[in-house]
Amino acid sequence: MSFFSSINLVKRAIAISALLIFSSFCQAEEVIKDMTAALKFDLDINAPPEKIYPYLLDASKWKYSVRKGEFVGDIEQIGGITKSFQGESKEPTLILKTVSAVKNERYGFSIHMPNGGFAGFAEFELTPKDEGSHLTYRIYVYMPSTEGMSKEDRDKIRAEVVAEMEHRQPIELNDLKTIVENI
Fold this sequence. Notes:
alpha+beta
């Protein structure tokens, strides 16, 4: 493992640790578990990583759920911010902050909804494969808006959020695949 690979692993560990520390402010581990979801999606794309990576940085180019992205700073640098707008909203519905970026390999970002709906961390990882690339997309979501609810209500909301993401993410990732394979 190279020195730079070790640094990237450390950055990823720090980002995940920050999410866990953030979660530790809740009253009990069981509550944290009920308010948290982790999802992973894998996709093979017939395009090299350098063709895919720019699209990962600007989801408005391929995610139907994102109408536009507004960038603050360099999003390829740690601390760069993307404000995502959905529907007709004049205010950002999601704020993404870059926490790790290795051009054509990895893009990780913290996520939060200004309305407090959820916060979390997501990461795209590209691995060259045969004539194309393998894309892994991991999402870790913390739902503070469910704090104070009964376990039954939290479970219901968590299930709805997970079901919506499990439905929408593969569709949007396939849209990304279609776009980059046909450029």
